[in-house]
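Attaching the record inline, Q. Sequence:
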Amino acid sequence: MSQVPQTDRSEIRRGRKFDQVIEGARKVFLRDGFEGASVDDIAREAGVSKATLYSYFPDKRLLFMAIASGECERQANEAVEFIYAGEKPVDEVLRYAAKVLIDYLTSDFGRQTYRLCVAESDRFPALGEQFYASGPLLVRQRLTEYLRKAAAKGEVVIEDYDLAADQFAELCKVDILAGLMCGVMGTLTPERRKRIIDGAVEMFLARYGTKR
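Structure, as predicted:
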């Protein structure tokens, strides 16, 4: 596995064995991480041959990003279910969104995904593109959807929804991103997490909230 092909993942043949590969890879990557996971282990866990695995994903990095994309989508869907389950005040929704984002960024899997993309995106642009689509772009889209609804209810006043969504996401990375990039993140204590979440929500609503 040396090069990441520039292919559209939607064109991959789907079926029972593909689902087995995805589920097996998810278990191995979540258990062993990117570096610790071997193709042999993934094929064994999935119950398929290495030839079958390679027919779907010719490069381990591409397979890892497919799993990372799936995890991002799963967490985003769970967040949407929470957000729209009943009428919740805007500050409660934003605190929950911040928690989901921070928990993923600081998880072992999230850290490995971020570092892999930073390290390999110059040589393999497909990885960077896939990470952006399943991470920052997905966060922006889901936040924008919610902020438009909040604005319609008079809870926020926003002109540029994409910018506001990006600003909130960046506020949630304060005191996290630099450490993540340099591999010196350390432990995120409950007190430190609360400080970041409170600061992000309060600053965002100070700019866009209607109750100031």
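The CA atoms of residues 91 and 185 lie 27 Å apart. The first helix runs from residue 16 to 36.

More tomorrow.
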